[in-house]
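Anyone? Bumping this.
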Amino acid sequence: MRPKLEDVAKHANVSKTTVSRVLNNRGYLSQKTIDKVNQAIEELNYQPNVVARQLYNKKTNIIGLLFPTVANPFFGELAEALEKKLYEKGYKVLIGNSMNDSKKESDYLNQLLSEQVDGLIVGTHNQGIQEYKYENLPIVAIDRVMNEDIPVIESDNYQGGKLATKVLIDHGAKNIIHTNGPIELETPAKRRRLAYEETMKAHDLIPNTVTLDFNISYQEKKKIFYDLFESYPGIDGIFASNDMDAALILQVAKEKNIRVPEDLLLVGYDGTLMTRSILPDLTTIIQPIDEMAEMAITILMKRMDKKETEKEYILPVTLWQGNTSKKTPAN
Amino acid sequence: MRPKLEDVAKHANVSKTTVSRVLNNRGYLSQKTIDKVNQAIEELNYQPNVVARQLYNKKTNIIGLLFPTVANPFFGELAEALEKKLYEKGYKVLIGNSMNDSKKESDYLNQLLSEQVDGLIVGTHNQGIQEYKYENLPIVAIDRVMNEDIPVIESDNYQGGKLATKVLIDHGAKNIIHTNGPIELETPAKRRRLAYEETMKAHDLIPNTVTLDFNISYQEKKKIFYDLFESYPGIDGIFASNDMDAALILQVAKEKNIRVPEDLLLVGYDGTLMTRSILPDLTTIIQPIDEMAEMAITILMKRMDKKETEKEYILPVTLWQGNTSKKTPAN
């Protein structure tokens, strides 16, 4: 019987992952480990599939996308934009949904890596995963802080947070709540929160950020928003962290007979084509999805060509002025 | 230099695809072609990567999903449901967006096949692609008629079309338009159209189905709906082929000061969690996404175990009675 990968691992007294990394020349490994694995490969006369792979074209022409969930319209439209643009350049995409689960994210990453994609575009929200340190795989991140080596493409979250807060204040809201994700996550979206809190303080208003988990259902979220109105009966403005949350808040307000914009001003975030088409009344901050996709691809291609790139690319956001934030300051 | 796949192809005077098919034992090939390719492999002493692959575990534990676009909430939620359930069973998913482009669909299919997924769940809308005839890859289709060998999981589109049309008629609408995709496509959604047309005729009403292309933008669709109201000023009911279209129609009606439900009754289709959460007023037909995902996986697993399956699995739909279809028959 021919030797298997796991035989090599056993022989060298290392994990299968380590053998795989040596074979693919990826990840941080000591020279000692590399030598030990190579020796085991020789002694067992193991024939790895990479050799066979190199008989083919070495490029796979596949770009991996790793997103929390494409069921969120922001990621759905981002995935679509990336797919269209990459296809025009001769690449296909394969998408993994991490569901913001770091175990899942890590599994997908290993899988995508072991399937040898030419590059990876990551838009997930989990904390630093070691696999992102794989050395020879070009990676760019969208709207997420990875590690120092990986360039991040993002929209101007600080400016977006400021615009959103300002539009509420300018139209007369004083008791403004901001909903955001857990503070531990290292996302550029944290800057929206910072901008909100700084802008509130600059106007002598008290910031109040309510954190929501990502993975809860629409029904659970609605329940939280119901409770929010109970806990803070004086709310007159909400800056929601995304448009889906804003749409749910609109719905809850309607069911509770809270009039928007008369009693409550509301601003969302993301401004996808879908939201603007089916809920054009919702004031929101538009993230430039198409430009972000374009930039992510440009930077990824640079990385694939071993060219130097910046660490961060910040693209401008714009305000979509709907009717949910219009109220005369006198009111 | 070691021989490559293309050297084998040249030597045997066949395409690279044909060589790949022989190596993977897939697709319809004559014995003559198979012999010719095998002879070329022997003469050149070509070593295909499948051999090396078999040194590893033969299972990839990856299921491929091929959908038109995850930017549509129905497919976004379906992909999420499939991903969650498959992950629990130890599988990961990779998603390809075909954008209803048969060239793209075919490219993805070849790619997914060449990456040797363990199985494939297809929800695209294009016409018969030859690759679906690959023999050794377990495939199930969702909401799409493939070929005779591939089981289809679908919701009860005829019943859904009938329910949608009935609710409009029961509330007093007479000039009812149905929007649907191009009639050439062999989708079970065609049964919605059939149900609409038969139900209209059974009530002595004249059916009028307007066909829309899939790949047009929200803006283009809105333009079409604007024109629709111009062309048919007497419309008092619309059965839209999906909720996104219904949401756009709601928006166009609002902009044209057509009151819903007073002047126009409206029913959508799909009833995703998202639609029901952010647009609960929209009457729609709920496709049981979760159950469809569950069934698709059960059937795929059966196919992977070489067990027999039915040709078609039809799951029940339900009516979501919102306010867009409520009008007293007297009106």
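Late reply, but here is one note on the structure posted above: Chain B touches chain A through 55 residues (CB under 8 Å).
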